[in-house]
Amino acid sequence: ELEPSHPGFAPQREPPAQLQPGVSIRNLVKIYHNSSLVAVNGLSLDFYEGQITSFLGHNGAGKTTTMSILTGLLPPTSGTAYILGWDIRSDIDSIRKTMGMCPQHNVLFDILTVEEHVWFYGRLKGLSEERVKAEMEQLIQDTGLPHKRREQTRNLSGGMQRKLSVAIAFVGGSRVVILDEPTAGVDPYSRRSIWELLLKYRKGRTIILSTHYMDEAELLGDRTAIISQGRLCCCGSPLFLKARLGTGYHLTLVKRERFGTVVGLGKPSSVQGLGWVLKSQGTYPGPFSSR
What we know:
By secondary structure, this protein is an alpha/beta fold. The protein has helices spanning 63-70, 92-97, 114-124, 129-142, 158-168, 188-200, 214-220, 238-245, 275-279; strands at 21-32, 37-48, 51-56, 78-83, 86-87, 99-102, 176-180, 206-211, 223-228, 231-236, 250-253, 282-285.
């Protein structure tokens, strides 16, 4: 069995058989030719309808690049992805009609009001006036912005602007919704409001949520996919990942033979009360470890 540090190690748990993949990524590779940077490295992954999949990884792990490929903003170097059965290489126009996206940075018009934004994007997707009005009322209520509906977005707080950007991704009954770090930089209250919005609108949609917050990934994600350096590290439910990979931490203590000096701790006087450190070397299981 491969060790977790091995680049090919990617424990995954198969989802229930009744779930249908809304997005399927197959051997996706993206290399930026101007720097020879391999941003996505042979990624294969499924995202399922009716679920929120947390796309977890550090900055530069390849989350945004993958999402940009799925939305057609960037072409893949090799490999492909299928969204609702359509191939991103040949059917991107059809894909965009059923997709909503919230990028890392808000794409809002300063002089338009909250309700004008929902109206604009709804009509852009070809909705009738009656349906746009109905969606506008529902989304404004669900985002907690009815008192700001006629306020220009330049006068909104950062949290309110972010909630509006997330809401826009759901306009037009988007069946696939891609959210790139939707809660980054927002206040705790707005963050909680965005969470509630996502959970309410999850049904019947394939939602991909990129984040680097562990608590957010666990709370919102039916499944969590962790990537690093463009590779899939593991994928499954939070419960599966905890059981498979363990919880807690390990503390490794290193000593020198000469008494009184511990590497990184300095003079003997600084380690009084840690005499056991000088007599042992090894691993200390954390308080949350199951081992």
